[in-house]
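FIELD: query
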Amino acid sequence: VSGAAVSIAWLAARERDTWHVLGLGGVTLLAWNPYVVYDAGFQLSFAAVLAIFVLARPLGRWLEGYPLPGMLRAGVTVSVACALVTAPILWLRFGQVPLLGVGANAAAEPAMPILLGLAFGAALAAPVLPPLAGALAWLNGWVAAYIAACARVVGAVQFAQATGTTAELVVLAVVAGAALVCHRLVVARVRGSPLARNMPNT
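FIELD: result
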């Protein structure tokens, strides 16, 4: 749904608003099946996208001082943002929180655009060129296998998951950290507003 909305906006030479696209995807899924709101995949997917929209850019600015390549920094930024927001959902739904998810996501992140691109290509080719669609899907299977391997390798580490009291402490730390980040974002936005610039320092 989001891909179709972005494509239509591009074809019509209209501006694209990421929040409108996200909202359209959510409304469409909920209209099709309102009970999907209780699905863990729905909750985690939209929480992760919200994290990317809100936290990825500030986190990226904080990481600018570290000696990380640009692509790796982007992957770590997105992964950290998603981990912060999805940790409480994972704890509530599954009773555990991944401790090494940032590394797994950073390793898998470069493959995600390829996965989506091949998936869209196969979907577009299927009605007119089924053999091409099959070839793209076969190739995409290898990309998906790499992403799954990242999860399996990291998940096999002994302390990859936190459960019980440890998971609760991790979630509390994550919530506190997210609250601090949100507070700093609000303060920075207020200080950067024209009204704040015209106010005397106190």
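FIELD: remark
The CA atoms of residues 75 and 109 lie 6 Å apart.
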